[in-house]
Amino acid sequence: MKITRTVLMEKAKAMGLKGLSKKRKHELIHAIQLAEGNSDCFGRIPNCGIEDCMFREECI
After folding, report:
1. What is the pTM of this model?
2. What is the extent of the structural domain holding 12?
3. Residue 39 contacts by C-beta under 8 Å, 6 or more apart in sequence?
4. With a cut of 50, which residues of the chain have pLDDT below it?
């Protein structure tokens, strides 16, 4: 299932992240990953071992 930009903006807002309204989708995902304490690896690594990542399906 593709994650929409709207869903990402809602999640970012719920996490208290600001200044993201003009960011691209992958930049939003990176910001969320960092805020969750994870690496901002979306779209950057070919083999992901993180099974419970909400972005996994769209990333690999």
Report:
1. 0.87
2. 5-59
3. 33
4. none
